[in-house]
Amino acid sequence: MDKWENNRAWFLVLPVFFIVAFSAIIPLMTVVNYSVQDIFGPGQRVFVGTEWFEEVLGDKRLHDALWRQFLFSGLVLLIEIPLGVVIALLMPKKGWGASASLVILALPLLIPWNVIGTIWIIFTRPDIGLLGAAINTMGIAFDHTASPIQAWITLMFMEVWHWTPLVALLAYAGLQAIPEAYYQAAKIDGASAWSTFKYIQLPKMRGVLTIAVLLRFMDSFLIYAEPFVLTGGGPGNTTTFLSIYLVKIAVGQFDLGPAAAFSLIYFLIVLLFSWLFYQALQNVGKGDVK
Q: Helix 113-123 to helix 130-137 angle, to the nearest 10 degrees?
């Protein structure tokens, strides 16, 4: 009876669960329906089976966008995770400095994604932008709308500036959760700063760092607003990621069938990596218990 009394609170969550499930299942079923039909107009459609999936999977532009997406997400993790850990290690642990650091770090996370792109467009403009004009003053021709390499560099700087604070905040929370007794034991044993980080801080941060990797990989894999506003997928298709390419098919070309098939493939890729990272999180949790 006591167990039943304690679990009754879950019934309060059921309305929200049904609303979310209802709002998610209907669009998903609509996409599945479009992915197996060729739609000519209202009431005019032909069942085509897996034709759109075969067409999308054989599309070289999709392959290129997929590799660009993996490259971008890989670079994001290689830069943001170590940088976030370093920032967390350098942050004050107590006093007003700690509070001020947390507030300053959180500021980029409060800016909407489309506004981030607009800020960096103005910031990097070669005529009036502070960064763009400064680079051109040094004799370097900088224009991220014309150079693929400069477009990637600008995009990476924007992404690192925007989301590294999230990694730093998570790492900082992990550091703050380490009991002081571990540091005292390391000091008694004469451990160096590197040994303390390697054998105490890093193992104790594995849980939060795995969460950081999960969040940053999935968010960077689904990125749309920032590169679309900053580069529009250009110059050419050099910054056309999966989400931008999907929007071009669905909205630009209005090919609902291929776009729906593409959406399902995209969804399965995200679902696969979510499952892999979930398994990694579970293993980290078991390791911590041991």
A: 30
